[in-house]
Amino acid sequence: MAKVVDLTDKNRHPMTLRSASSREDSEKVPVDFNTAMSKALQNPLVLDAIFANLGLPDLKTSRLVCKEWADVGATFLGKRALLQVNKLFSYEDSETAKMAPVNDKLMRRLIISDKFDSSIPTNKKADVITRAITHVDNVSRLTREIKFLVSRKEFVPAFLEGIRMLGSTRIEHMGIFRAWGGGSIDTIPANAYEKLPSQPCLTSLKFQALSDFQHRVADCNEFRPLIQVWLDSAPNLTSFDVATPFNPNLEACTSLKVLKFKLLKCCDSHYRQINVTKMLTQVKDSLIELELCHSVHDYVPLQQIQTADEVPVMSNLTSLTIHAAKVYEIGDFFNENHFPKLRSFSVRNGFKPSSLLTHVNLWSRHRGVHSLELIMDHYAWEVQEFGGKMIDLFPSVKEFDFRMDLTFFTFPCDISVPFLQGEPVWTSAAIYRFMIPFQMWDLKRVNISLRLLDSALMIDALKAISVLKGVKRVQFIFPYIYDKRANNFSTSFVQDVILHSGPFKSVEITINELAPEIVERVQLQIQASGAPIHFVGRSE
Fold this sequence. Notes:
Layout: E1 3-5, E2 16-19, E3 29-30, H1 36-40, H2 44-51, H3 56-62, H4 67-80, E4 83-84, E5 89-90, E6 98-99, E7 109-112, H5 125-134, H6 139-142, E8 145-150, H7 155-166, E9 173-178, E10 204-209, H8 224-233, E11 239-244, E12 258-263, H9 276-281, E13 289-294, E14 319-323, E15 344-348, H10 355-360, E16 371-376, H11 387-393, E17 399-405, E18 409-410, E19 423-424, H12 428-435, E20 445-451, H13 456-466, E21 471-478, H14 491-500, E22 506-514, H15 516-529, E23 533-539
Parallel strand pairs: 4-7, 7-8, 8-9, 9-10, 10-11, 11-12, 12-13, 13-14, 14-15, 15-16, 16-17, 17-20, 20-21, 21-22, 22-23
Antiparallel strand pairs: 1-2, 2-3, 5-6, 18-19
């Protein structure tokens, strides 16, 4: 039986081991630190290689073994874990919160949230937020990342005051996550948004809403000054990831390389104006990567202000990801003239059947796009004749990533007909007809992911995809089996899958709700064949 480390404080120095199989459990066996193994396990280079492969729980435990392990473990833990800094403070018969000591190496990444020590009174929590920044040693010198999970509005002024007191720092990444409910009635005072000290090291900023404020009227515009005060304090910002119901002012972001913008719904008619082209014009010469997303199902009243003169030339943009939505329907924009260096393009269909075709029709031919990603997970049946259009628009594609949901059904008009008698929209012929145009591309790499309910369609999909050029990888995901009466994944069927997997680098099949005996049989059959198939079956 292998020996295990005794992790009690008493035995940390010197290190001792306890035999798990010994009849004399109380007998401790001292470690000889002069052996080659002992020396190796104290060598920082060896420990670096070992600890790099440990998960967070094991990293935390390993620090209890000895001083050498504690030092190296703290370095790795500081890089990979977030320290809950406000939980370091507690009240013990004192009017001032006292802080527990902490290793400097753990100060690299901090999170400030609504999780406090149980001794902290409610009326002192905002003060602890400020102290978490100003009274923790070496934050300005050692900390590189802060995540602020704000669950109450009074924490925002306290946090910003702490940053002002700290001054310029070496913080590189700042994430602000708004997490209170729409019922909050307090407002954030205007003086809370006074100018912050310059943060020249801050290169990455993220703002995200974790609750439903986009559906509330009062909160729609509340965070504009919070976002703006951080943008104005970061002269060297290169990455900005933001979800708002308005377009932020990026005029000061002269070094911005990456912009990820997600439009949220706002019910207040005063804030329904979104000027995408104005926002992009402010960063047209610096952006390299752009992502335009949305979470808006119905935004008919949205006013988009745009004239032909406002459409910018994105002179250095190489990567564009966009959700096909009305707010991003910009005329005379998606072409080689306005995206002269574009190499990678990703498009996802929106919440309306016509959104993808409408967006694609805004494009003119672009010969510079070499990598194309299509994500079709809503209303995919509306674009069964879509391939030819993409071939004409992007003739130089070499890398093709494609994700589509084939789980749609049509139903009889007679509502008395049982639900499960719906007919699948995607038939064998439809799959082949959709895929066949893409063989015209001189592809080097193909990754395809399909969601299915009918196992029989998998063979048809393998046949259709096999005609494409390049190294091919395919993934099939079955949320459940539509017709359990069918002979799903029989021995002969699996043999057909193995037979048609030949042209593929890899075939991955993930399926839920399959009988355990079928899962076991399929796995054994695939393993014995040596085919490039990875089967993951989750039993019923």
